[in-house]
Each structure stands twice: as C-alpha cells, then as structure tokens.
Amino acid sequence: MNDITMKLHGDRLLRMALEEDISSEDVSTNAVMPSAQQGEVDLICKQDGVIAGMDVFARVFQLLDEDTVTLRECGDGDLVRAGQRLAVVRGDIRVLLSGERVALNYLQRMSGIATCTRRMVTLLEGTGITLLDTRKTTPNCRIFEKYAVRVGGGSNHRYNLSDGVLLKDNHIGAAGGVTEAVRMAKDYAPFVRKIEVEVETVEQAAEAAAAGADIIMLDNMTDEQMRQAVRLIAGRAKTECSGNVTEENIGRLADIGIDYVSSGALTHSAPIMDISMKNLHRV
Q1: Residue partners of 127: CB distance under 8 A and separation at least 6
Q2: Cα(55)–Cα(262) distance, rounded to whole angstroms?
Q3: Minimal CA–CA distance to 43: which of 106, 94, 117?
Q4: Taking residues 174-198, what's their average pLDDT?
Q5: Is the pLDDT at 201 greater than 90, yes or no?
Q6: DSSP labels, 50-115
Q7: What is the C-alpha separation between 245 and 226, in angstroms, rounded?
Q8: Active-site residue, 186 included
Q9: Which residues of 45-68 are buried (b: 16+ CB within 10 A; e: fewer)?
Q10: Which of the following is catalytic: 119, 135, 158, 168?
Q11: How far apart are the C-alpha atoms of 199 and 163, rounded to whole Å?
C-alpha cells in the first residue's frame, strides 16, 4: 500500500475507526495523563507469523499527532517469531494510549490474513495454481484486507462490483441461462473487461466455454466433476475453483488442472495474530 493510496482511501477509513473509538474524549487516558508527556512503547509479536500493516499501524498514531514516530524493526512480508520486537513507537503518551487499540486492530487483522495466505500459498507451491481472495471482506476494511493477501503471497480477485464481470447463479437466472448471460455481458461491458461465469455443473461449464467466457468458475464441484469440466473446456477459458476452500482441503486441488483457486476463508476466517504494545514509559 503506497502513500498515495493511503492518503486517498486509507486515511478516511482510519479516521472513521478512531472516531468510533473516541466519540468525545479518552476518559481513561485524560485521567492519568492530563498534559503532554513524551514516551515510547514497544510493539511485541506474541506468536509466529507474517507481518502486514506496519504502514497502517504507524499512520493511526500520525493521524492523532503527526509528530509520532514509529521506529520499525521489521517490514510487511517479514516472517516474525513469538517474543520479537517489531517496532518502538515514540511520541506524546496520550496519543500512544488513545491510538493503541485501533492501531493494533488493523495490524493484528492484516497480519493474521497474511499469515493464513502464506500457509495456503505454500501448500500450492509447484502446482501452477494461483491463490485468489474474494469480496468476502469486513465492511470498510477491504483495502486493508486485500493488501494483506498480497503481502502473504496471494493475488487479488476483483476489488469490487465495478472491477469486472462475474456472472453468478442469480445473474444467470435473471438472464435466462448461461449463453444468454454471456451474450448480454459481451454486449454491455467494455471490451477490455474479462467475463467470468460461475457454473455448478459440468454441462454449464461446457456451455460457458462455447459461449465465449474468459474465465469459468467451478463452484462447489466434486474433484471428478472439476476434472470433467477442465477436459470439456479444453483450454478455451481459464478455470477457477471456488467453494469452501480452506487450508485443510486445498491440497486436493493440485492435480485437477485448474488455473486459479479462490478462497473466502483468507479474509473471513483468518485468525488475528497476537501482537501487543508493552513497556510504555516516559522519556
């Protein structure tokens, strides 16, 4: 996530999170720290994993006070170990206390997603299959969560509904069938947009390929159904497997012949990484 993206989109979302946590004042902090006092605190990782979101973590404190400094000892994508110090945050103690929870919420969530993604990418090594995320993200956190997937080694599917054509079962039902849905999408969408079709049967997969779909998503099919579908598609479209793909079952997809596998679990089920701010003291 670069500085331009953060300023255009991230800052607004981070401010909303801070406003949710501090509606009028931080009563606890103001009670024990009535005036400005410089201090610093350690950022400590309490379990092994992949770090993601250090820029976001640091930016939360800067939005409260631009003079806050985060001295980093690791970067996004780094593998860290339990007990490792990740950074030292230095600034007004009132800012360190008031921004702590929001900053950690983002860092813990994003690092958990990156860690889960890295494990699943590792399970696909050597298969030629690309791991994708989905739109099953936390509301107003998609920009952060999809970034974390990339940090973990995965790739992003479409960012939102404006980003690409994906004709799912209800779109097909509304259009009156696979062939008609693809035809209508080709007529409406700009030629630079790829058209992906979600299918639930081998017959639908063959129909989507004949209709000229660019990508065919094989949704909740058995392994044998997917093999049949891949044979019938015969390279006319890229293939994607979707539907309840998790770390526990992703390995079974290695020899089916698909190009992509998408997993909502990367963002909706990844556990957070345990990270804390400790040893706060005056300087």
Answers
A1: 253, 254, 255
A2: 27
A3: 106
A4: 95
A5: yes
A6: E---HHHHHHHHHHH-TT-EEEESS-TT-EE-TT-EEEEEEEEHHHHHHHHHHHHHHHHHHHHHHH
A7: 14
A8: no
A9: bebebbbbbbbbbbbbbbbbeeeb
A10: 168
A11: 20
The secondary structure of 187-242, three-state, reads: HHCCCCCCEEEEECCHHHHHHHHHHCCCEEEEECCCHHHHHHHHHHHCCCCEEEEE
3 state DSSP class of 196:
strand
Please give the single-letter amino acid code of residue 78: D
Is the per-residue pLDDT at 125 higher than 90? Answer: yes
Whether the pLDDT of residue 29 is over 80: the answer is yes
**Collapsing DSSP states into helix, strand and coil, what is residue 43?**
strand
Catalytic site includes residue 76: no
Residue 52 in 3-state DSSP? coil
**Going by DSSP bridges, is the β-strand pair 195-199/215-219 parallel, antiparallel, or unpaired?**
parallel
Distances (CA, A) of 227 to 224, 230, 249: 5, 5, 17
Tens-digit pLDDT profile for residues 66-105: 999 999 999 999 999 999 999 999 999 999 999 999 999 9
Tokens linked to 115: 């860690």
Is 168 one of the catalytic residues? yes
The catalytic residue among 55, 100, 196, 198 is: 198
Active-site residue among 90, 101, 193, 194? 101
Q: Catalytic: which of 55, 92, 133, 219?
A: 219
What percent of the chain clears pLDDT 90, i.e. is strictly above it? Answer: 95
Q: Which of 85, 119, 135, 136 is catalytic?
A: 136
CA dihedral (215, 218, 223, 229) positive or negative: negative
Which tens digits make up the pLDDT trace of 138-170? Answer: 999 999 999 999 999 999 999 999 999 999 999
Instruction: Centre a 10 Å sphere on the Cβ of residue 255 and count the other Cβ atoms it contains.
Output: 10
What average pLDDT does range 163-188 have in this prediction? 97
